[in-house]
Amino acid sequence: MRPGVDETHDPALTSWVESANADGSDFPLQNLPFAVFRRAGSRQAWRGGVAIGDQVLDLAALQAAGVADGRAAEALALAAGETLNPLMAAGRGHWQALRQALSRLLRAGAVERARLEAALVPQAAAEFTLPAQIGDYTDFYTSVHHATNVGKLFRPDRPLLPNYKWVPIGYHGRTSSIVVSGTAIRRPWGQQMRPDAEQPELAPTRRLDFELELGLFVGPGNALGEPVPVGAAEDQVFGVCLLDDWSARDLQAWEYQPLGPFLAKNFATTISPWVVTLEALAPFRVGAARRPAGDPRPLPYLDSPAAAEVGAVDLQLSVELQTAAMRARGEAGATISRTSWRHAYWTMAQLVAHHSVNGCNLRPGDLLGTGTLSGPTPAEAGALIELSVGGKRPVGLPGGEQRAFLEDGDTVVLRGWCEAPGQRRIGLGECRGTVLPALR
Amino acid sequence: MRPGVDETHDPALTSWVESANADGSDFPLQNLPFAVFRRAGSRQAWRGGVAIGDQVLDLAALQAAGVADGRAAEALALAAGETLNPLMAAGRGHWQALRQALSRLLRAGAVERARLEAALVPQAAAEFTLPAQIGDYTDFYTSVHHATNVGKLFRPDRPLLPNYKWVPIGYHGRTSSIVVSGTAIRRPWGQQMRPDAEQPELAPTRRLDFELELGLFVGPGNALGEPVPVGAAEDQVFGVCLLDDWSARDLQAWEYQPLGPFLAKNFATTISPWVVTLEALAPFRVGAARRPAGDPRPLPYLDSPAAAEVGAVDLQLSVELQTAAMRARGEAGATISRTSWRHAYWTMAQLVAHHSVNGCNLRPGDLLGTGTLSGPTPAEAGALIELSVGGKRPVGLPGGEQRAFLEDGDTVVLRGWCEAPGQRRIGLGECRGTVLPALR
């Protein structure tokens, strides 16, 4: 069941929270993404919240106000606690009921306004934590452009491996080191084999990189041994966040054979606090990227007519880099990449169907990374290793600086948003991290 | 701090639980491994337990009896709940205090006997669950013999990759599908590229295998960004269990490049219920396997004099295979492999130091698999793919059967134990799984 476009998407709808009606807001009434937050510096329990303009609606306070009933009230109770796992487990019926209720309560003219105003917290006065307890984190490799670009650097003789166009390649990542946007990232040490060195050395990485990804939060999940059919796979996706899969390319090159990336990735993964639901993304669904002539048709367990028609999302993405020098000069970051999720070779339904085809069980709150979402042109690459062609052609920045890889003090900000004719723009907020020097 | 041999290891000590004194018991007074259990078929809350002979000592009941004090009482409270994570987090001081107390309480002549008898549950009347909530599961590749044997099959031209003798290779596994001994294993479906086929197909695996491993449960853990030095690494290891890393070799061969094994492994991993502590293993410590002349010395972050002297454990291991036909004839399983952990190329301290050198945080209850613990000779191989040389030389079984890979109805039982002159033998119990046919 794919969420459709309904009255909650009507671009004419406005909110009594005025900031939600401003042009360019990531969080108009048509979005309503979820996070877990509390008042910054307080000892409040963490609680669920919904973004509306520059405010967070405190769902614990909203629940106490008793303004919802039926399924919406049930869903609200599940969303009010210190993780969103219970809401994610509840399934699309509850998600839709809560969205409908929130849309009505926050709409201009809502009679409940007076009772809701006390439940608003300015986002600037809030601090955020991870939206869910993440049981398992899987990272995929859904951009054929990324796979080809990076493959050229690691394996010039065979950039794209024979399995790529058949198998939605993925691997398990580390959950303990997933952090929320704003957490500083310590440059990691690790084994490296430098060109022409006789033996490896332990040193701080010299090739620190970001990866522009999206993360999908799993909904109800499946029992061990019971695959999810591709036609039902989107019912397993609660929503989408931004994800920065920080990577140490020198560690990766030396360690990744034969069992895949390990220490090159597991020192940190940053996600945005806001999870934008599939309901909110409904108006921005588009057909899956067209496969070039000669590419194989997906095997039946990965194939569905719906995937071809509306399996993808035109979710636009950008990467901004601000160096310490730019910050000292009071300059904003420079945009160094622009792309869209729509270019992915594999859709979210295919990822879920593939992940579970062997009976592997997904649980509510599990996180599926898309892999770096590089688009078809060089300017759409989602990592410095691609943008700088393996470090050989550093990216130019304002003020004469350039970057082959990240330097200490650099801040990387990922952003995502959706726009379409006749629709209200919605955004994912930002996913931000600043590089700290390595420990001595 | 490596646990030493103390009075709790005295082979002359006996227990008032008579079955613990029987020759060949896995669980004499000198062992005292932990599990999480309840009376089978009951609705009791899961609770910590300690094995003694053929009984489980119920730690929730023991706590209520008020027979411990000081640090031991604190540790007991941490061990009595539905996971052992709190005990694992407490650290070696608490682990040792609880061991001392349990050893005294269960010793022949203990005055507390009458109060403890009511806290004993026959193991045959108990059911077990996972001993901890496992936040992350990492699987290593510590046997150079396994790496070489399997490498020959997957990459005949370069069996052992250049990084092997420098890097304790590891990758992240799936925690959701870790199950306790006795859980049936459903044969998974997956993509396979058969020899000479034009394209891959989706089918039940034809090359289902076990892997003989040990699992290490992590103790207190480290903060994100703060590596654990090799000299302190064993303080992070609470204890050891048996681990069967079920593997679908045809899925693995097709999917594993370039990001490592995924669906070939994540359909199920079985662990034994009992966790044998490093304290119990103290009398069986031996020097790490001698590296062949010409092998490099480990880099300093992986090198310690203690590792060379007593970094390994002479923990003996076996694999038993019972087919459906053998079971129908009332025959026990046949032992198809015998080896020891002592042959591993990397020690547990090296695994912990490597895993955290980039700042990756380990958390209490995390599980580190050793990888298949194949020994130096063909008979010591820990997986069918090695024993049958990639399926080409099936293993002979009693009654004229043979196995290249596992068939439906096969039961695999891993066992582990330690013996040394002048010491009481201790065991890990068993890790058991039976193969169910694939779903239609």
UniProtKB/TrEMBL annotation, chains A, B:
It comes from the Bacteria. Coiled coil: none annotated. Residues 138-435 form the Fumarylacetoacetase-like C-terminal domain. The keyword Ligase does not apply. Keywords: Calcium, Hydrolase, Magnesium, Metal-binding, Phenylalanine catabolism, Tyrosine catabolism. GO terms for molecular function: fumarylacetoacetase activity. Its cofactor is Mg(2+); Ca(2+). The keyword Protease does not apply. Pathway: Amino-acid degradation; L-phenylalanine degradation; acetoacetate and fumarate from L-phenylalanine: step 6/6. Its EC number is 3.7.1.2. InterPro entries: Fumarylacetoacetase, Fumarylacetoacetase-like_C, Fumarylacetoacetase_C_sf, Fumarylacetoacetase_N, Fumarylacetoacetase_N_sf. Residues 30-131 form the Fumarylacetoacetase N-terminal domain. Pfam families: FAA_hydrolase, FAA_hydrolase_N. NCBIfam families: fum_ac_acetase. This is fumarylacetoacetase. It comes from Rubrivivax benzoatilyticus. The gene is fahA.
